[in-house]
Structure formats: structure tokens, C-alpha cells
Design goal:
Layout (H helix, E strand, L loop, with lengths): L34 E4 L6 E4 L1 H10 L4 E4 L10 E3 L4 E3 L3 H9 L7
Antiparallel strand pairs: 1-2, 1-3, 4-5
Length: 106
């Protein structure tokens, strides 16, 4: 059995519902998400319910997981491995990130 999850299409709806979708299904699970799963080093991630987290643990490898919080689907939120959660950066942190970006002045 392949230990890597077959990745589906990106979801842009911003909901916190389970995105598990078997190959033959026409829709995602849709149950409320309870887990946020980081699949790999490319930061591919998804949300899943308790039932499908159990399935994930039985079938596939993943890099990290944590319980879903309000920040998990916020644009700009960061995955914090040490704290096992997503966090929205404080304004000072966000400003320093932008300052590191090279700017060309003509």
C-alpha cells in the first residue's frame, strides 16, 4: 500500500469542514473538521473529522496534526509546529516578514 495520501483538488471555500473525498464520491465528507493535518514539507494540508483522522492514521503518513482552531483557515495564518496549532501573526511579526522581501527602487 502507498503510504502517501492521494491528494485531491484545492478547496477555496474557507469552511472548516472535513475535506475527505473517496475516489468514487461526488462530494467531500462535509462533517465539521476536528483535525488540521500537514501532509508534507511542501505545506500541503487539509482539515478532517475524527472518523477520517482515524482512517488517515491507519493508511497514510503525515508530517504533523493539531486540533482545528479558528486560525486554521485564516489567510496568512502560520503553522506553528512547536505549539501544535495555527496562529495568525501579530502585526509586528507580519511587518518584519514584509521588510525581509527585497524591494527594487528605480
Amino acid at each position: 500500500m502507498d503510504p502517501f495520501v492521494p491528494k485531491g483538488e484545492h478547496r477555496y471555500d474557507g469552511t472548516q469542514s472535513c475535506g475527505y473525498k473517496p475516489t468514487a464520491a461526488s462530494e467531500d465528507c462535509g462533517q465539521p473538521a476536528t483535525w488540521h493535518v500537514m501532509w508534507d514539507g511542501q505545506l500541503d494540508n487539509s482539515l478532517t473529522c475524527d472518523e477520517h483522522m482515524t482512517l488517515i492514521q491507519q493508511r497514510w503518513m503525515y508530517a504533523d496534526r493539531h486540533p482545528v482552531t479558528a486560525d486554521c483557515t485564516m489567510p496568512g495564518a502560520l503553522w506553528v509546529f512547536v505549539n501544535d496549532r495555527c496562529e495568525f501573526p501579530a502585526p509586528a511579526s507580519a511587518a518584519s516578514c514584509y521588510a525581509e522581501t527585497p524591494v527594487e527602487i528605480s
